């Protein structure tokens, strides 16, 4: 099984990539290319949910493949707390994302725009806690 640090590093790269895709979607919207905005958001949704599903599968099968394995093995109490805070952004995001997709596809603008604000705040919180604070290397390697 890969280490929790390796998994977090891969997730940080994946989140960075889909964040660039999200930025491209917003640029498309800003330039009036609404259809491209929708297509990029659909791709964003599929890629993000695929990463979440893959991560969840790893979390579930990891202990069966390697007894005692956990993504947080070797983490400090601070990093475990950061993960709890991170999940306070991620779990609502997983609820908001399908609603954003549905309201966008149905052109329900009055619902879609307020959801977009909620989504943006949750995504920003997820980025700060996930990319900025979750460990992608053992603590000794992070603080030489």
Explained architecture:
The chain is an all-alpha fold and 144 residues long. It contains 5 helices and no strands. The chain has helices at 4-30, 34-65, 77-105, 109-133, 139-142. The longest helix is centred in the middle third of the chain and has 32 residues, at 34-65. The protein is elongated, with a radius of gyration of 17 Å. The mean pLDDT is 93.
Mean pLDDT: 93
- Helix/strand order: HHHHH
Structural class: mainly alpha
Main pleated sheet: none
Helix content: over 70%
- Which overall shape is indicated by the principal axes computed on the Cα atoms? elongated
Number of separate strands: 0
Strand content: under 5%
Intertermini distance: 26 Å
Structure annotation, total helices: 5
Number of domains: 1
Unreliable residue stretches? none
What does the radius of gyration come to? 17 Å
Summarize the structure.
This protein has 144 residues and is an all-alpha fold.
